[in-house]
């Protein structure tokens, strides 16, 4: 199989991963857990496919890289274009992945803060004699007695 064919296959899979990440970003913004789970499974499939294509490329063209081809004067315009597209896709994927991680962390912090507000602060401490100290307890947002 030609190297250009394998690179184009990798770029196609990278585009699919980028699309998944864009959908993931929207699902995170909309807090749509069901869609997030579906997207995660879709991403796993694309990542497995990317790994298979990369293994095939490495098996068919062991030790060959675009920089080695360029040094040897064998880099065709098609290969160069595919390599540039791959670099661009990888950078876009990295940037979007960082954005999605930030959105995930913010969502988690928000959820923890809401739980803290609803639950209230109920810290107990003991004095030197082993007895429970009276502390001002922040009331929970919800009454816990039934």
Topology of this protein?
Layout: H1 3-30, H2 33-60, H3 66-71, H4 77-119
Helix pairs in contact: 1-2, 1-4
Structure description:
There is one protein chain. With 146 residues, this protein is mainly alpha-helical. 72% of the residues lie in helices and 0% in strands. The protein has four helices and no strands.
Defining key terms:
mainly alpha; Methane Monooxygenase Hydroxylase, Chain G, domain 1; 146 residues
Short description:
The chain has about 150 residues and is mainly alpha-helical. Helix content is about 70%, strand content about 0%.
CATH architecture descriptor name = Up-down Bundle
Number of domains: 1
Task: Extract low-pLDDT stretches.
Answer: none
Total strand segments: 0
**Overall CATH class:** Mainly Alpha
Order of helices and strands: HHHH
Structural class: mainly alpha
DSSP helical segment count: 4
Shape annotation:
elongated
